[in-house]
Amino acid sequence: MTEINYQLLKEVIHSRPLESHKGNYGRVLTIGGNLNFGGAIIMSSSAAVHAGAGLVTCATYRENLSALHTIVPEAMFVDLANDQQITAALEQADVIVIGPGLGESSAAEKIFKKTLTQLQSRQFLIIDGSALTILSHHQNWFKRFAKQKIILTPHQMEWQRVSQIPIKKQTDTRNLAVQQELQATVVLKKFGTTIYHLNRTIAHLNVGGPYMATGGMGDTLTGIIAAFLGQFHQTTYETVVDAAVYTHSALAQKLSATNYVVLPSQIIKNLPNFMLSASLV
Ligand SMILES: NC(=O)C1=CN([C@@H]2O[C@H](COP(=O)(O)OP(=O)(O)OC[C@H]3O[C@@H](n4cnc5c(N)ncnc54)[C@H](OP(=O)(O)O)[C@@H]3O)[C@@H](O)[C@H]2O)[C@@H](O)CC1
Ligand SMILES: Nc1ncnc2c1ncn2[C@@H]1O[C@H](COP(=O)(O)OP(=O)(O)O)[C@@H](O)[C@H]1O
Ligand SMILES: [Mg+2]
């Protein structure tokens, strides 16, 4: 087991070459946000923009469009109810996030299955929130369609649903066994988040705390992981995932020095400054 530390950020976050453009920093597609949980996919999209993704497209329902564009005008929109638009968006993306606020309706199940079916081997897929619960009901889809480069970001209850391991019995040995069967990276979110990689290495997070316990905190993490995977290619993708998870909690910890609670939107706003500091040292 390795402890993730600040040193890792220096390996991953570099100054940008002068001759580069938005196409060099990742096309991120975020899928989610039903009527009740629109904020989740907006936070994911906004986190991706603020963590440096070159182009972010949010696939959500029309009801969320004006809120999306008010909060993060940098993000583009595709209508989650428009099959043709979704097909094209899935085709073009480098990194896909599915699940924040998606809900578990039959339409949500359909879009999850479509995403798995269309997934290309060059693409990264981050599965979070409602999509993890859908996955727990349809493990056969996952085994049939999924390719490598899939990252699951469950909290302990979502992991219980997917792995069938009760929260109290979620030890590294048991978690690793199921993760290896799934053949996906697993970011198990909790106090002391643990990341299980395909090569069986286990990375442990020793930053972050209860000031992060606000709805939307995990949704925000998905956007940071997506942006990092879209733009940082000088190390292995496992290292990039570790660096993204560390950034989310280390930044929250920094902000907690002067704030009783740290909101997802505060983390989002402070990402560019935090990343600049890491790129300079
Ligand atoms: N603003 C928005 O739009 C927001 C939208 N959201 C979206 O909502 C959707 C549903 O996601 P969800 O996580 O809220 O619900 P669910 O999957 O039922 O899990 C909760 C259950 O698990 C249990 N639990 C045990 N351990 C836990 C742990 N370590 N961390 C957390 N929970 C833990 C917990 O136990 P309890 O609280 O009862 O003690 C409870 O029984 C999803 O799409 C998400 O993206 C949210 O992000 C909020 C902001
Ligand atoms: N006590 C805590 N210590 C460390 N991290 C925490 C704590 N409480 C919450 N978090 C972090 O907040 C995030 C919560 O994720 P999640 O439950 O998926 O949130 P949501 O679905 O509401 O966006 C995770 O990254 C988790 O590690
Ligand atoms: Mg969540």
From TrEMBL:
GO molecular function ontology, one term from the record: ATP binding
Positions contributing to AMP binding: 189-193, 218
Chain residues that bind (6S)-NADPHX: 40, 101, 155, 219
Catalytic activity: (6S)-NADHX + ADP = AMP + phosphate + NADH + H(+); (6S)-NADPHX + ADP = AMP + phosphate + NADPH + H(+)
Keyword vocabulary terms for this entry: ATP-binding, Kinase, Lyase, NAD, NADP, Nucleotide-binding, Transferase
Presence of keyword NAD: yes
Enzyme class: lyase
InterPro entries given in the database record: Carbohydrate_kinase_pred_CS (IPR017953), CARKD (IPR000631), Ribokinase-like (IPR029056)
Name of the protein: ADP-dependent (S)-NAD(P)H-hydrate dehydratase
Protein species of origin: Liquorilactobacillus vini DSM 20605
